[in-house]
Amino acid sequence: MGASASSLDTTQYGLNNRSLKFKLEDIPEACIALVLSYFDPPDICKLARINWAFHAASSADFIWESKLPSNYRYILEELLGSSVAGMRKKDIFAKLSGPNSFDSGKKEIWIDKNNGGVFLAICSKGMTITGIDDRRYWNHISTEESRFQTVAYLQQMWWLEVDGDLEFQFPAGTYSLFFRLQLGRVTKRLGRRVCNSDHVHGWDVKPVQFQLTTSNGQRAISRCYLDNVGIWIHHHVGDFVVEDPTIVTKLKFSLTQIDCTHTKGGLCVDSVFVCPISLGKELRSFDSLIVMTK
Fold first, then answer.
1. What gap in Å lies between CA 211 and CA 177, rounded to an integer?
2. Which residues form the F-box domain (predicted)?
3. For the chain, what is the mean pLDDT?
């Protein structure tokens, strides 16, 4: 019976083998777009190269609207001074997935290319550092190892205090805040990375303290001894929760070591980094791996 069924003459139904061969181009564009909406942005871009039908479907606004953070209008209009009028959602995603500076270049914002999570970075020049204008203690040094191309370098001081703040309309979720620090001053010698640790001292006597507070009363404090000579580490300050994405959250954060019984020096302060907690866990795991393999 199976054999007779398989040899059924399709011509009696007005069909032939040629008409049964469909091509990808024959799939309606709306159907392709609906399927693409279930993929992550990098995969959508890869599939868009299959043919013209996939390329056209991949530009549908409803696909990229779902990939953008809920506050994308706030980011573009309030922070970056751009208008979303007339912009395709795909173009908005492309713009925000790259680094975008604001506040006179002291801060940067971008979104994760895989899931649209929001990242923020504040450079050392965007924070208040005690004694920063006295070159006996601090210097701003240029380096390719910072996304801002400059870091604050502490030669020696009794009192360490770094304060900063940020006002931002976060999408709902839980976020982590980090200080990116390194002990020792890195230079290039004959094309190789060399760390000068001559000024590194005092960090094993007392721990540094990190602190985070939010405008709705959340607070986090953490302490640790610094020992990451020649290695950039994202030191976790704490986490905070955003429940209402329509209001601006105000953050205050600090790094201190104000025990004046000893001096400390040789510290590079690069930036403060804010990201969704899930991506923050990946960042901490990556830093731990670097330390273990160093």
1. 10
2. 21-67
3. 89
Mean pLDDT of the region 113-139: 95
| Six-digit token string for 51 | 């043919």
Phi, psi of 178 (to 5 degrees): -130, 150
168 sits in which H/E element: strand 160-168
Tell me: the pLDDT tens digits for 35-71? Answer: 999 999 999 999 989 888 888 999 999 999 999 999 9
Query: Taking a C-beta distance cutoff of 8 angstroms, is the pair 200, 164 a contact?
Result: no
- Give exposure, 67-88, as e/b (b: 16+ Cβ within 10 Å): bbbebbebbbeebeeeeeeeee
173-224 pLDDT, tens digit per residue, is 999 999 999 999 998 888 899 999 999 999 999 999 999 999 999 999 999 9
Helix or strand holding residue 241 (H, E): strand 233-242
Among 62, 48, 124, residue whose Cα is nearest residue 93: 62
Strands 138-142 and 150-154: antiparallel
**Nearest residue to 75 (alpha-carbon basis) of 169, 207, 182:** 169
Helix (H) or strand (E) holding 181: strand 173-183
User: 186: number of CA atoms within 13 Å, CB side?
Assistant: 21
**Which residue in 220, 225, 212, 213 sits closest to 267, CA to CA?**
225
For the entire predicted model, the pTM comes to 0.86
Burial of 104 from C-beta contacts in 10 A (0-12 / 13-18 / 19+): exposed
Q: Which residues, at least 6 apart from 180, have a Cβ–Cβ distance to it below 8 Å? A: 232, 233, 234, 235, 270, 271, 272, 273
